[in-house]
Specification:
With 438 residues, the protein is of the alpha/beta class. It folds into two domains: 193 residues, D-Maltodextrin-Binding Protein, domain 2 (3-Layer(aba) Sandwich); 219 residues, D-Maltodextrin-Binding Protein, domain 2. The chain contains 18 helices and eleven strands. A five-stranded mixed β-sheet has the order 2-1-3-11-6. Strands 8-9-7-10 form a four-stranded mixed β-sheet, with helices on both faces. The protein has a two-stranded antiparallel ribbon with strand order 4-5. The termini are far apart.
């Protein structure tokens, strides 16, 4: 039976706490993505229910956020009471004892409602160490009007060859319309998130079973050649500086025929308040080459509490509030169901109001469910993680490789030179870390 929004809020609302916190300030490090910005605007709902707690936001660009929170927690700097981190950091940091187990989120939190794949990615030995604020895979977002104008029909599961052909046909550089927008900004979670997922679909891998780097493989060369050629022919100028937010702005302005990126963007590109092309957006699975792997990743931006914090109780109150079913209902009441943070709770994808308001819901769910962190590649690998290898060294290696590939995209370096430099740098770091000896 379809419940009213008011009933849903009443049924899922977090009980206002009777505990008063005397002058407790929570400093929260977060990323400058749209859903997090929206959360900041709703903070009064939390503070009104928790007298004495104030919230201080430190909002950072993605690469800067990763660097700041990693440095702070590794050095026990204590700058932040709550960290915004992802599925890469959580198991590594939890095993180091750097995170507080989140086993006190409240009786009405309903941890069993968290999507199993996302909950598992944020847990160690069955214990949750970060609560997902939103979760995502990646997919194709495209202009239905431009696809039709090109005389094409987008399949639900397109190949890379279809995407490349469509992108070139949709490009009209004189009108500043580019067939495809893809990440080019250097960073392990920026261009390398996209390129690693893409490389999986081309049969590439970061390491073989003996941890030998594989950038000298034909699969990686084919991936990078395809990407650079496509972006040169059909991408926007300055693409080597573009990450998620830059491409979102381009797509919303009507300058991209297609954009392959995080499923979380769907609510923004279909919102007429944000997007000039909101009524023309369609969705498809991330592309493949027929080898059995699509180029989609798995990620959850999540809230965690650093170990050693002096404000654990207050921090857990905030984490519970921001990642609860009641928070989803709060956003729905203010912004509409289509704009709630996606991908974290099973109940959301059983909610008739959400499914009616969000035309992208099924494709988002299918994309998340098809990502396989335990078997991310065509050939066997010794690591888990779809768009990253879940080892501590990956953060540094991934960023170094990302810089090489961004240089190849900008034309500052040849593809062969970029791959050779990536191979050399990765071999050096992996040998230094003790994964193998030459």
């Amino acid at each position: 039976m379809k419940a009213s929004l008011g009933a849903f809020i009443a049924a899922t609302a977090l009980c206002a706490t009777s505990v008063a916190y005397a002058d407790t300030t929570l400093t929260i490090a977060t990323v400058n993505n749209g859903d997090m910005v929206r959360m900041q605007g709703l903070t009064d709902d939390f503070t009104s229910k928790n007298p004495g707690i104030t919230v201080k936001w430190v909002t950072l660009e993605e690469n800067v956020l990763r660097q700041r929170v990693t440095t702070d927690i590794a050095t026990k700097g204590g700058q932040f009471d709550i960290l915004t981190i992802g599925t890469y950091e959580v198991p590594i940091w939890a095993k180091k004892g750097w995170l507080v187990p989140l086993d006190k989120l409240g009786s009405d939190y309903d941890v069993d409602d968290l999507m199993p794949k996302i909950r598992a990615a944020l847990s160690v030995n069955g214990t949750l160490f970060a609560a997902p604020f939103y979760a995502e895979s990646s997919m194709v977002m495209y202009r239905k009007d431009l696809i039709a104008k090109a005389g094409l029909t987008m399949p639900d599961s397109p190949t890379w060859d279809f995407i490349a052909n469509a992108a070139r046909k949709m490009t009209d550089k004189s009108a500043e319309v580019y067939g495809i927008c893809l990440r080019g900004k250097a960073g392990w979670g920026e261009n390398m998130a996209f390129l690693t997922a893409m490389s999986n679909s081309f049969g590439a891998r970061w390491f073989d079973e003996k941890w030998q780097p594989q950038f000298n493989s034909p699969e990686w060369k084919k991936t990078l050649e395809f990407y650079v050629s496509l972006m040169k022919d059909a991408g926007p100028p300055g693409a080597s500086s573009n990450g998620f937010n830059e491409n979102l702005a381009l797509f919303d302005a009507g300058k991209c025929g297609m954009w392959i990126d995080a499923t979380v963007a769907a609510s923004f590109v279909t919102n007429p308040k944000d997007s000039k092309v909101a009524d023309q957006v369609g969705f498809a699975l991330a592309p493949n080459t027929g080898l059995g792997k699509n180029a989609n990743w798995l990620w959850a931006w999540s809230l965690a509490v650093p170990a050693g914090s002096q404000k654990v109780d207050a921090a857990e109150k905030f984490v519970s509030w921001a990642t609860s079913k009641a928070y989803l209902a709060l956003v729905a009441s203010k912004e509409g169901w289509a704009n709630v943070p996606p991908g974290t709770r099973t109940s959301l994808y059983q909610n008739a109001d959400y499914l009616k308001a969000a035309p992208f819901a099924k494709m988002t769910l299918d994309s998340i469910n098809s990502a396989d962190p335990d078997h991310p590649t065509v050939k066997p690998v010794p690591y888990v993680g779809v768009q990253y290898a879940a080892i501590p060294e990956f953060q540094g290696i991934g960023t170094a490789v990302g810089q090489q590939f961004s240089a190849a995209l900008s034309g500052d370096k040849s593809i062969d030179d970029a791959l050779a430099a990536a191979q050399t740098a990765t071999e050096r770091e992996m040998e230094r870390a003790g994964y193998y000896k030459k």
